[in-house]
């Protein structure tokens, strides 16, 4: 399975600011995804990070709020912009491995005050 | 879109007993069904998965069954141990690779 790291692992931010989360995988992967997990809740797909083109966002998520970069096949960033307390969540990246399995990173725990 | 329902939301079992978690899905096009285990402070860990051309799959103490006709699949953990305590998520996807997750089951194994 792929080894995935995320930075930062956790952060406390003030409302109105932005935070960029990094996701690094130890091998080249075609598909990378970003999920949000609100406190005590399940996982919700934010977007698919496409290498060399714009990310594909799910209903309810927009590029202005969650801009995503994917400069190569091992790295992606998710920015949470103009944060409010409602953005307090765990943000997870995942990668698609052979045979459609998905592996998740350890997550970034964000608290917005 | 796909809707995955998961039951129960919490499950408490005595060490050594079995645990069963059930999920139903709505999209008949779904053909891939993974299960994840999430421990406190960690990301979800893939523990087992099943594809629509298979009815049952087993890996040591963990097994998953799939009933395509009824659109439901289940996770079975036998001989539970304290380290099995975690939140378990089922998920489903079709050929678009997007995973739709159930709400999760908090499993507590009592020593």
Can you put this structure into words, describing what you see?
The complex is a heterodimer of chains A (113) and B (111). Chain A is built from no helices and eleven strands. In chain A, strand 5 (43-49) and strand 6 form a beta hairpin. Chain A has strands at residues 4-7, 10-13, 19-25, 32-37, 43-49, 56-57, 68-72, 75-80, 89-96, 102-104, 108-112. Chain B has 111 residues and is an all-beta fold. Chain B contains no helices and eleven strands. In chain B, strands 2, 4, 5, 9, 10 and 11 form a six-stranded mixed sheet that branches. The termini of chain B are far apart. The A-B interface holds A 1, 4, 31, 33, 41-45, 48, 58, 92, 96, 100-107 and B 32, 34, 36, 42-46, 49, 89, 93, 97-99, 101-104.
Annotation keywords:
heterodimer, A: 113 residues, mainly beta, seven-stranded mixed β-sheet, four-stranded antiparallel β-sheet, 50% strand, globular, B: 111 residues, six-stranded mixed β-sheet, five-stranded antiparallel β-sheet
Quick recap:
The complex is a heterodimer of chains A (113) and B (111). Helix content of chain A is 0%, strand content 50%.
Estimate percent helicity of chain A.
under 10%
Helix content of chain B: under 10%
**Hey, roughly how much beta strand do the residues of chain A contain?**
over 45%
Mean pLDDT of chain A: 95
Give the topology string of chain A: H per helix, E per strand.
EEEEEEEEEEE
Mean pLDDT of chain B: 95
Write down the Rg of chain B. Answer: 13 Å
Compute the number of helices of chain A: 0
**Stretches with pLDDT under 50, minimum 5 residues of chain A:** none
Q: Strand content of the residues of chain B, in percent? A: over 45%
Number of strands of chain A: 11
